[in-house]
Amino acid sequence: VGYKLAMMAYYTSAITTTQVRQVVSYFQTRAAASSITATSVQRMVYTEGDSISSQATSWPFVLQPNLSPAAFVGISALGGSTMATMQSRAAALDADLPVLGTRKAILTVLIGANDLQSYPGGTDAIAAAAYVTDLQAYCLARKNAGWKVVICTILPRATPAAHNTRRALVNASIISIGVGTYWDKIADFGGDATMGLDANASNVTWYTDGIHPTVAGYAILEGLARTQINSI
Questions:
Q1: How far is CA 37 from its chain centroid?
Q2: Segment 126-151, tens digit of pLDDT
Q3: DSSP 53
Q4: Using CA atoms, how far apart are residues 47 and 15, in angstroms rounded to an integer?
Q5: What is the CA radius of gyration of the chain?
Q6: How close are the terminal C-alpha atoms of the chain, in Å?
Q7: Coil, helix or strand at residue 45
């Protein structure tokens, strides 16, 4: 197609964020010596949550080439995560902020698939309210640390019924709270007619197992998230 390979790097193990910055700086210097302009990407998008955001087919993995302005993407989400385990990673997440320098740091948050149905509270309404309170506290702390936060409303599960009952309450609260204090943008996954209705989770076109979206389903979520991220 007419392209020429200017340089490439190969690593036998994972490298740190600091090492990545060193490599980028080296590449930019080499590019300049060859009269190639290599601008530095000025946005970084991290994703936090559970396996819905961490599988190899998940929406964050197809997000990066579609972002405009361009951004690096980091996956902080881990399979099996709950509100508590996500909170336990907060300090390590915030520790990356100084390394990002002047880049705009954007964090997406999608949590609830693993623990919302069993969250303590006695009744669905009380448990959902407690979940929202904890979600607000987590997101506010990230904003205060320096992140721009995109909150994603919770997706359905085929079972148990308590998940969908509670997520409806949580999602309604997120939308009602709106943007500003706790989050900068809302990616309304749970409000999408194809991905967000209770019955959608049992549709094998959009969900593989009643919890995790298919490739086609993830493509819809990626578009919803990208629209909000691009607007920051």
A1: 30
A2: 999 999 999 999 999 999 999 999 99
A3: G
A4: 19
A5: 19
A6: 34
A7: strand
Looking at residue 85, its amino acid is: T
Q: State how far the alpha carbon of 70 is from the alpha carbons of 63, 103, 104, 115, 190, in Å.
A: 10, 11, 11, 34, 26
Say whether pLDDT at 114 is over 60.
yes
109 CB-near residues (< 8 Å, 6+ apart): 48, 49, 86, 135, 138, 139, 142, 149, 150, 151, 152, 183
Tally helices (H) and strands (E) across the chain: 7, 5
Whole-angstrom Cα distance, residue 107 to residue 59? Answer: 14
Contact call for residues 114 and 50 (beta carbons, < 8 A): yes
Residue that the structure tokens 């997706």 belong to: 155
Q: For residues 43 and 226, is the Cβ–Cβ distance under 8 A?
A: no
Q: How far apart are CA 117 and CA 119, in angstroms?
A: 6
Can you give the pTM of this predicted structure?
0.86
